[in-house]
Structures are given as C-alpha cells and as structure tokens.
Give the backbone structure.
Amino acid sequence: MSSASLHASAVTAEGAAWLVSAETYPRSALALWRSAPAAPAVLPCGSAFDVVSVPAVFGRRMLDRLWAEGPGSGPVAAHRGRVLLFAAPGTAQRLPALLEWEEWGPAVPSVLCHGTGDAVTVPPLTAADASDPASGRHLGSRWLVAPDTRHPWLPGPEVMLWACVRAARSATSSAVRISIFPGGDQSAKVYDVSRRR
C-alpha cells in the first residue's frame, strides 16, 4: 500500500462517544470535553479499550504493517514522541507474555501496555490549528487514525504481536535509502479506513 497524508485527523461525534464510554460518567465527560475540544483528555483503559504505546518510528512501522499487510488498525494517536495504538480490552494483560516468546534483536524498543487501572492522554477532539498560538501546546498530540464510529474494530494481542514482529523485522532488514529526487512529506501517510472490520 502506498503511503501519503492521513485524512482522519478529527474525531467524529460517534468516535467521541466511544472514547468517553471508558469513563464512569460518559455524558459528563463528553460535555466537559466538548466545552474544550482543542484540549487533550485523560481516559481510563481496560473497559472500552487498551492502549499499546511504542516509540514513534517503531509505531509508524507497526501501523504501516497493519495497513499494508494486515487487517488495518483501530484508532491510533501520536503523543509526546510515542504512537498509541488502541487495542481490544485484555490486550495489555496478554501482549507482554506473547512478546516474551519472541526472540528480539536490538530493533525492538520499549512496548508499554496500558490496561485496567491505567489511564492515557488522548489528543483533542479537533485538530490543532497551527496558526493559533494557544493551540501550539497541543501540537505534539494528534490523531493518526481518529475514532469515527461508536463500535470501532480493535486489534487483539495476537494482531499486535504480529505487527510488532513485522515492524522489528522490517527495521533490521531495511537499509538506508538515499534518493537524489526531492520527495514530498516523507512522514505523511494515508490509511484506507474503509478496510476496518
């Protein structure tokens, strides 16, 4: 699959409802978040979703593998130099044991699994406006694949393990590529969200 710019940068109303379903009082949480849609939120993990957090470059490799060779992904965010991949509840408990079975080389970074009892900071409901100085503090937090449905498909621990293994193998087997042709935005990606289950 070719890579280009993502178009899912803002959370839909259904996606926001799904995110806050993780809260004890979802209506109150949604009303509060809608009153400040350009601010990130802290949400608990374990009931509506778990989160697998990996360093940014490794996370982009995982995301590329999920969309190019696999089933796609659920919502995905970038926050403070890490990629947050939203996964099925229970993934945080099972994935570490599965990762231990793999023989990793030096290409595998720290994989953090957030589940029951944990909370994560998620990006704002709306994309930050780069021309607005007040929104500048949130530019490091954005959606790569924004939630757009009330019941998104979420990968489980086996799919996450597969993506980690593929990303690690691609990191060790890829050589440095140098091009004499100027390219576009090398970090921009396009993911066909219609492939979600």
Notes: Residues 1-7, 133-138, 175-179 have pLDDT under 50 and may be disordered.
